[in-house]
Structures are given as C-alpha cells and as structure tokens.
Amino acid sequence: MKNHYFAFLFSLCFVVSSIAYSQENYLDYHRKVTNCEQLITQEKYGAALTCLDSIFSEFDFIFLREIKLATELSIFQNDYLAAFKYLRIGISNGWSIKRIKSSKSLQILQEEPEWFELESNYDSLIQIYKNRINTDVRNQVRQMVKKDQKMAIGAFIRIREKSQNKYTRNKFAPHSERQMSRFQDILEKHGYPGEKIAGHNLWASIIVCHHNSISPDYNSKDTLYTSMRPWVLKALEKGEISPYEFAQMEDWKTAVLNDHKRSSFGFIGDVGSEENLMEINQNRSAVGMRSTHLRNQLLDIEKSTGLNLYLPKGWREGVIDYQK
Which residues of the chain have pLDDT under 50? Predict the structure, then answer.
C-alpha cells in the first residue's frame, strides 16, 4: 500500500513542479463537467465518475468541487478505494482534514483501514497544496476581505436608511475604490487570486461583490469593475476563477441596478420574466455554467438520493425559474 502512496505522491509532485500550467481553456473544462452532471441526472453514476476521471487526466488544475463530487459518487457506489483515491487528490488540492472529518457523508470512511494511512500521509499531501499556492497573495487577499467585512459592519449598524446611505457614500465607496485598485494590481501581476493561485474560492469575489453592490447611483457610474472585467474573463479561461464566482459578481451589479427584479445568472435578484430566464441561460452557457434546468434536475437528485453534489447555490437555495 505504501508503494502505491509514494507513486501517487511522486506523480502529483511532477505535475505541480512543472514549469507552467499548460494553456488549456477552462471554459471547456466546465462544459465537460456539465456533461458529467448530465449523466448523474440519468442516474448513470459510474459513467459520471469515468467522465470526471477523464477531466482529471486532461487538465493540470482541478477545482476542489469536482474532486469532492467524485468522492461522493464513489461512496454512493460503495467503492471506498476510489473514494480514498479522490480524498488524497483532494487533500493535495487543499481539502483540509478538518472539513473532511466534519462531512457527514464522508464519516463512513473513518471506519475503513485506509483511513489511518490517509491521516498518516496528510502532512505530505497538504504540503503539495501549500507549495502550489502563492501564500503572499493569499495573505494579502485575506487581509483585504477582513477590511471589507469591518467596513460593511459600519453600514449594518446604522439603522436609518439616510445614515446608511451617507456612510456608504462617504466611507465605504472610497474604501472599496482603494480595494479595487489594489485588486487590479494583484490581478495584473499574479493573476486572479482565487482557488488556483491563492487557494481560496471566495475571498477575492467577496471584495468585488461588495463593490458591485454599493448603490444603484454609484454602480451605474462605476468604471473600476468595467475595466477589471476583461481581466476576470481572461482568468476564467485560465482556470484562475470559476464561472460561479464570476456569476455572483455580475449578479450583484445587475440586482442592485434593477432593484433586485432582474438577474444575470440566477443566483441573486429575481428572475423577472421568461425573457430574463432565457438571458440567464445564455449568459451561463457563454461561461461554461450548467443551465438552470440542469441545476434544478441536480437538486432533485440530491433530494431523492441524499447525495451532496456540491452545487454552488449563492443566495438562492431552491430552483431557478420564472415565477409568474
């Protein structure tokens, strides 16, 4: 068993120590993931795993969500050896032992003999992840998020709308502009500081979402996000950001500008009409996201099987549809 582990570890080190990630187009990655998800809705779980494996072989960087999905499907099929394989891949991509232990669906693996070996090799596996990410960029973005959250609290504690608006205009907006300027600098020097580069898939998008939700008047005139957007789209192609992070940035701006009565991707804001739903699905297709119909089908699968398909839900837990 140890020989298998060291062979696995060597292969991971070889990938991570390559001079540079090959220039795959990650829009293709996400579209291929939706193909695997189609198989799940047909209850072809083995075929879905084979589909995911082909993606893992084709692309240098794998988003942790797909590794978690493969682990979940393996357990569902009682293939615990495969589940441990994906757990090892997941840890080497930043899946912490604390989160693994806290997952109800993964607790059954702690009763297996391979669990002890997994824990014994944890430090070596997580080090692969630590060697991959840019810790300096990670720390910068983490501090920026903390500043954002501290400033946001200042708005929440003001009860009157007039007081909130004044605080947002005079305090939060200038702060957010400094944040966006610093963010742009990181983006140009290092790439988008998301899961691939900074090892976290939310911090960076939180900063942009806060900026895009300042106020209708402010965001209608804002140029900072407009100038940053092409860089973010390029990062999407490189796999530095997932389409779901990008979607929430866009959705916040659309929702704020339309009194939350319209949505760009279906996460935030109402689906205002059948035309809006069509636009949402066109936007989703353009960045490799699953359609709202596929998402709703996967939610049904979660309910009927108890599977956790790790669907990004944003501010909308239920189905995405136009309600007349």
Answer: 1-22
